[in-house]
Amino acid sequence: MLLFSTNAFSQTDYYQYDPNTRASTKVGFSRPSNNSSVEFSPYVETNPVNAMVAVGMYKQQLYNNNLSNKNALIDDISGLLTSIKKYDPDFVTQMEDQINNYLHKTNNLDLTDENIYRLIIGTLSNYKTYLENSEQTIMDNYYKNKNQ
After folding, report:
1. Do residue 16 and residue 74 come from a single domain?
2. C-alpha dist (Å) from residue 15 to 29, 42, 49
3. pTM for the whole thing?
4. Beta-carbon neighbour count of residue 96 at 10 Å?
5. Which phi and psi (to 5°) does residue 45 adopt?
6. Residue 82 near residue 131 (C-beta atoms within 8 A)
7. Are residues 100 and 129 in the same domain?
């Protein structure tokens, strides 16, 4: 924002220059009168509404995509826990508690922040990989103990 003034016949006009439109807009004036205080017309702030709408729509789309990816990963983990549950219910209860605690801690974080999103997805992916790697071992131990 660039302000400049012109002085004519004891009235000073104040203008704001907008480099995007290359136009100046009168934003105020002052008229000295008998050493009284200077008066300005009220300043009305203009926000770029179209840009704000575009950013809001982009952020909402990003949030929806990231939430969808997070929920898909949670569904995968839930499926793994369900398949393991009959073989080792104590292990599943422990993992459910651990994952639920993590989800409650991260539930209110901004999924449009790339660093936060990567952290959450990375942690959930680690849980999923751990469960995938543990599933066969748990099933093998179950049948080994059952046959003894």
Report:
1. no
2. 9, 13, 22
3. 0.65
4. 14
5. -75, 135
6. no
7. yes
Tokens of 35: 């050493």
Q: In what order do the strands lie in the sheet with 2-8?
A: 2-8, 11-18, 23-30
Q: Which domain holds residue 68?
A: 50-147
* Bridge partners for 18 per DSSP: 23
Q: Does 73 share its domain with 98?
A: yes
Task: Give the percent of the chain with pLDDT over 70.
Answer: 83
Distant-in-sequence, close-in-space partners of 3: CB < 8 Å, separation ≥ 6? 14, 15, 16, 17, 27
Angle formed by the axes of helices 114-147 and 89-106, to 10°?
170
Q: Residue 37's pLDDT band (boundaries 50, 70, 90)?
A: low
How many structural domains are present in the chain? 2
Residue 16 near residue 25, CB atoms below 8 Å: yes
Q: Are residues 9 and 34 in the same domain?
A: yes
